[in-house]
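so im writing up the methods section and need the Lipoprotein record in one place, dumping it here so i stop losing it
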Amino acid sequence: MSRYGITGSVTFLALLALTGCGASSDGGDEGGDGGATPAARDKGPACVGTAPADGAHVLRGGGFKLPGGGGVQYAGADADGTTRTATLRDGAKYASGQREWTVEPGAEVTVPGHDYAVRQICSYRVVLEPKAAEDRTALAAAPKSLEPRQGATDDGLCFTTDRTVLATAAKGFPAEGNTLSLLDNGGVQRFPTGLSLTVSSIDPAAGTAGVDANCAAIPVAGYKDVRVGETVEFAGVLFEVSALTEQAVQLTRTST
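--- predicted struct ---
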C-alpha cells in the first residue's frame, strides 16, 4: 500500500502537466499555477474503486476541508482506459507553493497528522476515507443549524457526511431524472445548504462547458471542459451533462 503525506520525509511527486479530465481551480482564476488546464477527452474508466458511505467526496477542480484544520484539492487526473490516478494538492483552497502528489486507489495520504485511505477515483471526484474513528465522527457531526450564512461558518454544511445535511442538499435539486438548467448569464444559483453554482464558460463549437461550485467561501468544484454525457457531482448528488447551448448548461439528475 502506498503512503503519501503533507509533512515528513516522503518525496512528493510534482505535477508537470494536468492530463485526462482533471483540473485545478481557485474559484475561476485561469492564470498562474491555480488555473485550469484544458482537458483532453477522458479515456476512462469513469471510476476505479468503491466509495464508502462515510467517505469525503473531493470534487474535481475543488477542495474539501478535513478534520484537524487541513484540507485537500482534486487538482488533476489521468486515465489510460484501464486505470486512473489522481493528483491531490495540499490545502482546501489554492495558494502558491502548495505541494501536490499523485495517488491511485488503495493509497494512503496524510493531511497534517490525519490519515486517509484513497477508496475511489473518478473523473469527477476522489473519495477519501478517514482511518481514525475520531475523524470519521468529526466528518459526520451534525451542524448547529441547517441555515447557511454564505461564509466560513458553513463548514458543517459543506464538508460533511452527516445524513441530514446531505438529504437537505439533495432536496434542493430537481428530482432524479429531471433537469437543472444553469444559465450562462453571470448569475449565481444558490441551494439550501450554502452551495452556489455558476457557469464559467460555454463553447458550443467545441461542445464543452465549465461549471464552478462554491460553498463556505471555498471553491468545492471546478468542472472545466465537460461534455454532454459526462458526470458531475454537487453536494453528494450526481448529474449527467445532458445538453449544452449558447445560453445554458443542462444537467440531468442521475442519483436519488
